[in-house]
Write a structure and sequence with these properties.
Helix content is 23%, strand content 29%. With 405 residues, the protein is of the alpha/beta class. The protein folds into three domains: 176 residues, FAD/NAD(P)-binding domain, CATH 3.50.50.60; 112 residues, FAD/NAD(P)-binding domain; 77 residues, Enolase-like, domain 1, CATH 3.30.390.30. A five-stranded parallel beta sheet has the order 3-2-1-7-19. Helix 1 crosses helix 8. The model has no long low-confidence stretch (mean pLDDT 96). The structure holds flavin-adenine dinucleotide. Flavin-adenine dinucleotide binds next to helix 1, strand 2, helix 8 and strand 22.
Length: 405
C-alpha cells in the first residue's frame, strides 16, 4: 500500500497539535504542515499578556520545540498560504504554484481580525492584535507611547488594557456595551471586571463607539460617536475575529459562521476535516457552536487527529477558557449564551467567587474569579473540575448546594 499522506493547512495551535497527535497515535505516513505565518507554530495567549509586556520570550511560546518537527518527520512549509482545495482530486494549491496531493486533509486556518472600517484606520499607530508580528509592532509603539485608546473591551481589549496599564501607559477604553463582557459572563461579573479596570486607572467610555481616528500620518486622537475626543499616541482595536473559511467554502464545503463539522471534526467534503477557531462544530452537550478558546484549539486538534485515523469517538470536550487581567485570573467552563439564574458561591465584590449559570435548574457554565482552580490542571482538584461533571451530566441541582461555601 502507498504511504498515506496527511496534509494540514494552518500551522498554529490546532494544526501543530494535530500533527503531534498523529505521531503520538502511531501514524507512520507523511505529514505536511502548511502555514501562512513565517514563525514556527506558537501560542497566542501571551500576546496580550506577558509577551506584550516584554516579560516573556517568543521561544517560550512555541507549541512544540524547534527541533520537534524534523525529529518527528513532520514536513513544515511556513510563510506560504494555501490558495485552493480540490476535494475530488484531493489536491491543495499553494501560493507560488506548488500543488500538493493528500489522502486526508485537515484545515486549521483559525481566524483573522475583523476589518476595522473606521475613517483613519490606516494611520500609523492604529493596531489590531492576532499574530506575533502584530504584537511586535504594538510592543515597539509602547516604548514611546504615553496615552493609548483601546477600542472594544472584550477579552482581548480587556487584557491589552491591563497590560498597557501595567506598562505605565494611560488607557482610555471605548466600548459599546453598558457593562463590558456582560454578554459572556453576565452583568454582575462584568461589573466586577469593570470596577477592577477603573481602580487600575483605565478611563472607561461606555455605550459609545469610535467614529474616527485622526492625526497627520500618525494617530493623534480618537473621535467617538457621542462626541468625545480622546488624545492618544496609539490605538489597539479588539473588535473580534472572523473565521478563515474561504479556502474550504470555495471548495464547496458547508459553512455557517465557521466551517461546519460533525462530532468527529468531518467537514461536508470527503476526507476533509477541520479543527480549532475555524470550526462551527456539533457538540453532544452544547449543540452547534464556534468558540475561540486555546483549550478548544488544543483539544479539537487532538480529536481531529484521532478522527483522521478512523477513531469514531465524538469530540465531547466540555469547553473552557481563561483570561488574565492584572493580578486577577478568570476561568470559565461550559458554554452558555443565555441563563435564567446566576448563583454565586462567594460574594462577587470579594473578587474570589464562583458563578453558576443555570437554565431550567441545570448548570450550563461556571465562571471562577480567583477561585476554583484550573479545570485543565490534573494536579489541582479544584471546584471548577467538579463543575465540569455537573455540566456534562446535565442533572438538576439545588441552587442552595451551589451557593454553600
Ligand atoms: C492576543 C490573543 C490572546 C488570546 N488569549 C487567550 C486566552 O487567554 N485564553 C484562551 O482560551 N484563548 C485565548 N486566545 C485564543 C486562542 O489563541 C485561539 O483560540 C487559538 O489560537 C486558536 O488556534 P487555531 O490553531 O484554531 O487558529 P489560529 O491560532 O488562528 O491559527 C490559524 C493559522 O492558520 C493560518 N492560515 C490561515 N489561512 C491559511 C491558509 N489559507 N494557508 C495557510 N495557513 C493559513 C494562519 O496564518 C494561522 O497561523 C487568544 C488569542 C489572541 C489573538
Amino acid at each position: 500500500m502507498a504511504r498515506q499522506r496527511i496534509v494540514i493547512v494552518g500551522a498554529s495551535l490546532a494544526g501543530a497539535t494535530a500533527a503531534a497527535t498523529l505521531r503520538d497515535e502511531g501514524f507512520d505516513g507523511d505529514i505536511r504542515l502548511i502555514g501562512a505565518e513565517a514563525q514556527l507554530p506558537y501560542n497566542r495567549p501571551p500576546l496580550s499578556k506577558g509577551y506584550l509586556r516584554q516579560q516573556e520570550r517568543f521561544e517560550d511560546q512555541l507549541v512544540k520545540p524547534a527541533g520537534y518537527y524534523a525529529e518527528q518527520r513532520i514536513q513544515l512549509t511556513l510563510g506560504v498560504r494555501a490558495t485552493a482545495v480540490f476535494a475530488k482530486q484531493k489536491l491543495v494549491d499553494l501560493e507560488g504554484g506548488e500543488r500538493v496531493a493528500y489522502d486526508r486533509l485537515l484545515v486549521t486556518t483559525g481566524g483573522r481580525n475583523r476589518t476595522l472600517s473606521v475613517p483613519g484606520a490606516t494611520l500609523e499607530g492604529v493596531f489590531q492584535l492576532r499574530t506575533v508580528a502584530d504584537c511586535d509592532r504594538i510592543r515597539a509603539a509602547t516604548r514611546r507611547a504615553r496615552r493609548a485608546v483601546v477600542m472594544g473591551l472584550g477579552f482581548i481589549g480587556s487584557e491589552v488594557s491591563a497590560s498597557l496599564r501595567q506598562l505605565g501607559i494611560e488607557v482610555t477604553a471605548v466600548e459599546g456595551a453598558r457593562v463590558p463582557l456582560a454578554r459572556v459572563v453576565g452583568e454582575e461579573v462584568g461589573q466586577v471586571l469593570t470596577a477592577i479596570h477603573r481602580e487600575k486607572g483605565v478611563e472607561l467610555v461606555l455605550e459609545d463607539s469610535v467614529s474616527a481616528f485622526e492625526g497627520s500620518g500618525r494617530v493623534e486622537r480618537v473621535r467617538t460617536k457621542k462626541g468625545r475626543v480622546l488624545e492618544c499616541d496609539m490605538v489597539v482595536a479588539g473588535i473580534g475575529i472572523v473565521p478563515n473559511i474561504e479556502l474550504l467554502a470555495a471548495a464547496g464545503a458547508r459553512v455557517d459562521n465557521g466551517v461546519l463539522v460533525d462530532e468527529r471534526c468531518r467537514t461536508s467534503l470527503p476526507d476533509v476535516f477541520a479543527a480549532g477557531d475555524v470550526t462551527n462544530h456539533l457538540h453532544p452537550i452544547f449543540g452547534r457552536l464556534r468558540v475561540e478558546h486555546w483549550n478548544n484549539g488544543y483539544q479539537q486538534g487532538r480529536a481531529a487527529a484521532r478522527s483522521l485515523l478512523g477513531d469514531e469517538r465524538p469530540y465531547d470536550y466540555v469547553h473552557s477558557f481563561w483570561s488574565d487581567q492584572y493580578e486577577h485570573s478568570l476561568q470559565y467552563v461550559g458554554f452558555a449564551t443565555s441563563w435564567d439564574r446566576l448563583v454565586f458561591r462567594g460574594r462577587p465584590e470579594s473578587r474570589s467567587f464562583l458563578g453558576f449559570y443555570l437554565e431550567d435548574g441545570i448548570v450550563r457554565a461556571v465562571v471562577g474569579l480567583n477561585r476554583g482552580g484550573d479545570p485543565e490542571d490534573p494536579t489541582v482538584d479544584g471546584e471548577l473540575k467538579a463543575a465540569v461533571s455537573l455540566i456534562r451530566d446535565r442533572v438538576p441541582v439545588d441552587p442552595a448546594t451551589l451557593s454553600a461555601d
